[in-house]
Amino acid sequence: MLAERSLPGTHPREGAPRMATKKKATTTGKARGTASAAPEELGNGGELHQLAGGDSPVMTTAHGAPVQDDNNSLRAGDRGPTLMADHAFREKIFHFDHERIPERVVHARGYGAHGVFECTESLADVTRASVFAEAGKQTETFVRFSTVAGNLGSFDLARDVRGFATKFYTDEGNWDLVGNNIPVFFIQDAVKFPDLVHSVKEEPDRGFPQAGSAHDTFWDFVSLMPEATHMTLWTMSDRAIPRSFRMMEGFGVHTFRFVNDAGESSFVKFHWKPVLGMQSVVWNEAVKINGADPDFHRRDLFDAITAGDFPQWELGVQVFDDAFADEFDFDVLDATKLIPEELVPIRTVGTMTLNRVVDNVFAEIEQVAFMTQNVPPGIDFSNDPLLQGRNFSYLDTQLKRLGSTNFSQLPVNAPRCPVAHFQRDGHMQTSTQPGRAAYEPNSFTGDDRGPREAGSDGHVPFPAPVEGETRRIRAESFRDHYSQGRQFWLSQTPVEQDHIVAAYVFELGKCEVPAIRERMVANLRNVDESLAGRVADGLGMPLPAASTPAAPVVETEVSPALSILANAKETFEGRKLGLLVGDGANAAAVKRLTKAVEKAGGVVEVIAAKVGGATLSDGATLEAKQAVAGAPSVLYDAVAILAGPDGGSGLADEPAARDFLTDAFTHYKVIGLGGETDALVAATGLDGKLDDACLPVGTAAETTAYVDRLAGPRHWDRSVTA
Ligand code: HDE
């Protein structure tokens, strides 16, 4: 036993050139640390120079002292107690014990990347924001996508809103556009935000369920708050189960203000449109993806960017004036309402490209601090009460999470333009703040001047007139809670409506208290009778009496822009084919298919019975990325199975291969079949059921037809229910 222990002196790193990377002491003749020694002569001038762990043969403490042995703590005698004198060990454990910081109270689970925004059309006529000053102007960005309800360690495909927060490092300070992938919100007044969040998070007396709204407290709250109904239609739609961050829209949600050089203001709403188009998964698929790959969305983003397949979004603005705001049926300050694109067209003003993954997830994605109140000159707030409340919240939350008022100095948060202020000191001050005088006005600048005059260069708040009594009140103009929910419902394709009904039935079916289900269905009757009837039917309950709306429901024009499927792009670009290959599969067919999919902008992932790969007809081994047992078809947008000549070389006997095909079929996917797949098809019970979207792949013509079909939608006509 004793002999197996690594004792001092027998450590594998012993003998390594311990000082190899350490700089030689300076030989300037000046004593280290004396007042006259220039910092640059003494090393790195005070900047922390952190090497990657493996980049140095010698490890050091956090204070730079070389560590003799990082694998054995200091003890008295071979088997004796560990000594307090082991300061390197104590420092290591101390640091480890403090590694965690509080996760975000909402949007805890997220993933991000760096990018660049390029303005494609000057907006100088309506805003003096430098980011929109001229076509071609580029601004560095950082984006964090997130789910809302789940904890940091939850899964990516929760049915949930997605955060879409963008930090623009503009030359006049950071602009944080902290949006979601849904253009409206649950509540009208920020004072209800803690209640909303408490209702959707785990129930406090039991600690579950997490990362999901399918439970009593959420539906209890929203059914008692009819203003939330519109947003529930969105969260029950396919928007809440996106295929990829790269394939979802983003919205600033609130009405903001633009202010131009002349001080004139217009209202603005911000929209991100994915260049790849929108795609979602189906619910049964989402449930399975969460088990098969809880990191599905973050992996997807990481893989795409590292492969050089940079995701892009177009930024669009809806700009409108007070006259439109006054005429519009709804209050533009009410965040439970949107402005249909058909009423105010979206003007595309730039493109954002995410082109760099982070170097360190904690330093960047976890420590990035978004704040709605970060706006540069030219962008201002409206009186939306939700936005006004957010402007208080985001500063507080950063102090709680990041622990110091100096969080703006963290590299991911630091503005790329110079900062000049007299905020001083505080925990973790990393800036060696220059100057003798830390107050304004002062005459140490050399000028004998008084207080700086207010200039027109800074952020000038738009001088909106304010009047009225101080009261706690919800404006009359905020009382219509159903009309836009109805518009959303009526703007969906029948397939999307089916999904919304199924989602309400699923979620309300998880509520144990029948009165909650009834109250929600009673509200849905104000949205649409057929919707309410179908949900009640799905729940197996009688249709309750409709609740009384606070304001009459207004019939509005259908808005085709609200549908995902009606706006689907005909492309397989950015998507992934799962290619299950059996031993003996035709080598030429595999090659042809792979080439054709890649030419169409897609990615092919090879799957085999064993991860070692499959032996093709030409005797070559095709390396597999995954074994089929670990790569269910839910991880792919479409699948193809290329079997060998002998009935799939055992694929039919492999339960995971059978599931691969059955699930792909159930999820309406386009399926390619090549080689002898009859045995596999028979084993899944699908013989005689294969339809138009189950295509042969083998010959060149078949491959072309199959790859063309991949660009189209799922085969929604398939008679399955997923
Ligand atoms: Fe947030 N929200 N929020 N929110 N929110 C936070 O800030 C808050 C709202 C959104 O990736 C918190 O840094 C209030 C709407 C995103 O880091 C917190 C209200 C929209 C993110 C907070 C809202 C959002 C947050 C938690 C009601 C869409 C993640 C951690 C008025 C337009 C940003 C943090 C990231 C995060 C408060 C409502 C988007 C507590 C009080 C509406 C994308 O400050």
From TrEMBL:
Enumerate composition-biased segments (Low complexity): 26-38
User: Which sites bind heme?
Assistant: R104, R144, F193, R390, Y394, R401
Q: Which GO CC annotations does the UniProt entry carry? A: cytosol
Record function comment: Decomposes hydrogen peroxide into water and oxygen; serves to protect cells from the toxic effects of hydrogen peroxide.
Per the Swiss-Prot or TrEMBL record, the active site comprises: H107, N180
| The protein's required cofactors | heme
Q: Which reaction does it catalyse?
A: 2 H2O2 = O2 + 2 H2O
Give the classification, highest ranks.
Bacteria, Bacillati, Actinomycetota, Actinomycetes, Micrococcales
| Similarity remark | Belongs to the catalase family. HPII subfamily.
InterPro entries in alphabetical order: Catalase (IPR018028), Catalase_AS (IPR024708), Catalase_clade2 (IPR024712), Catalase_clade2_helical (IPR043156), Catalase_core (IPR011614), Catalase_haem_BS (IPR002226), Catalase_immune_responsive (IPR010582), Catalase_large_C (IPR041399)
**EC number(s) given by UniProt:** 1.11.1.6
Start and end residues of each stretch annotated as Disordered:
1-79, 425-465
Q: Where is the composition biased (Basic and acidic residues)?
A: 446-456
Keyword annotations for this protein?
Answer: Heme, Hydrogen peroxide, Iron, Metal-binding, Oxidoreductase, Peroxidase
**Membrane-crossing residue ranges in chain numbering:** none
Main enzyme class: oxidoreductase
GO biological process per UniProt: hydrogen peroxide catabolic process; response to oxidative stress
Q: Which organism is it from?
A: Knoellia locipacati
Q: What is this protein called?
A: Catalase
Q: Domain Catalase core spans what residues? A: 60-448
